[in-house]
Every structure is written in C-alpha cells, then in structure tokens.
Design a protein that fits this description.
Blueprint lengths: L1 H12 L3 H34 L5 H11 L4 H12 L14 H37 L4 H11 L1 H16 L3 H7 L9 H11 L2 H33 L1
C-alpha cells in the first residue's frame, strides 16, 4: 500500500498524461453542467419565489424531492432519451461527454433551483414593499434580488458543483467510461480499483478529495463574507 501511495504521488507530481486527461475531462464536464444548470435554475428559482400561481406548492415540493434524485435514475432517463430507440437518438449523443453533461445538469438543476428559491423568497419578504414603492415589477426584481443574494448563491452553485464532481452512477450509464473519451475521475477510480491498478486510483482519489476540500473551503469563505456583509 505504501508503494501504491508513493506511486500515486509521483503520478500527480509528474502530471501523468492519463491522469491529467481524466482530471481535465472531469472538470470540463462538471463545470459545464454547473454553468448550464445555474443559468436555468437561478432565474427559475427566483421566479417561483416571487410569483404565486396555482400548483406552486406542488412545484416547490417536487423541486425539493428532486434534490435527492438518485443519480442512476437520472442516468437511466438520459440513456432512454438518447438511445437509438429514444426521441433524441438520432443526435448520436449517447456515450459522449455531452450526454454526461446533460445527466449532471438534471442532477444539479433542482438543487440550485430549490435553494435559490428559498434564498430569494427570504429577500423578497424583506425588500418587497421597498421595491414595489419604487415601481419595480416582479420581473425586474429578479436580477436585483439575485445580485443582492450573490454570496449565498455562490455557495449554492458550489454545492451543485460538489454533487456533480463526486457523481458516478449517471455518468457511468450515459458515458460508458470509455478510455480517453468519457472516463472521469469517479468512474476511473471504480474501474482501476477493480483492475488492481491502485496507484492511478489513489492518485485520482487524492485529487478528488483535494477538489472537494477546495470547494468546501471556498463555500465557507464566501459564507463568512456574506455573514460579515449582513452583520
């Protein structure tokens, strides 16, 4: 085990091409998914917070429930949609990084939407009378409230990134874990461990742990900055 750990550190320090390729693809897929999900989910969450409409409670309940959506279920949904027999099978996206991004967007979107709704709803209750007295419509209030809540929302987005970067089930189903094409850190760790290639698995595990720790550290710093700002 000591030799495996030492070899893993050497792979990291020497920037092994295979390891570097897996890490780069992982970051590219997860970051793309987070950006796409955030662009959709932040305004949607804010809109749900500001408007009252029939069935709003049902929508909020569904969003909250989907925060715990099992990754394998999301992967199966995307697989059925993108497979040859599915409605989007002609696009040929199955077993590509794009399919992996789609699966991760489905996982991240309800998290960002549900949490941003809670944050914006609290701000709307605080600033509603002031904004309405200035003649600001609900639609125009959305960007204002999102900007005011930017520190808290950064933490929400980072939570989404943490979910995406550590996910294995969905990306394995829709990506196929193809070497050099759709193999990301989580799927590679599982495969290399089963193959007995512990140095590469350990190297990827170390990087993944450092990534998760960095995300949590940034989220803590941002949260503290938000609390000092409000205080």
């Amino acid at each position: 085990m000591d030799n495996a750990f030492q070899t893993a550190l050497r792979l990291i320090l020497e920037m092994d091409p295979e390891l570097l390729g897996i890490v780069t693809l992982s970051l590219r897929v997860s970051l793309t998914a987070v950006v796409v999900a955030s662009i959709i989910a932040l305004p949607v969450g804010a809109a749900i917070a500001l408007w009252q409409f029939p069935g709003r409670g049902v929508v909020v309940t569904i969003l909250n429930a989907l925060m715990g959506l099992p990754p394998v279920v999301a992967g199966l949904m995307v697989y059925m949609t993108l497979s040859r027999a599915g409605p989007l099978g002609e696009l040929g996206l199955l077993f590509t990084p794009t399919a992996m991004v789609i699966a991760q967007v489905i996982l991240i979107l309800p998290i960002v939407a549900a949490l941003s709704r809670q944050i914006v709803e609290e701000l709307w209750g605080e600033y509603r009378e002031q904004l309405q007295s200035l003649g600001v419509s609900r639609l125009r209030a959305i960007p204002t409230l999102l900007w005011d809540a930017r520190f808290s929302l950064v933490t929400v987005v980072l939570a989404g990134f943490g979910r995406a970067s550590a996910e294995v089930g969905a990306v394995l189903i829709v990506g196929g874990n193809i070497q050099g094409f759709t193999r990301v850190m989580t799927t590679a760790i599982a495969l290399e461990t089963n193959k007995g290639n512990l140095p590469l698995a350990l190297g990827l595990g170390i990087i993944l742990l450092l990534l998760v720790a960095t995300v949590n550290g940034v989220a803590y710093v941002v949260g503290e900055a938000a609390r000092r700002r409000l205080g």
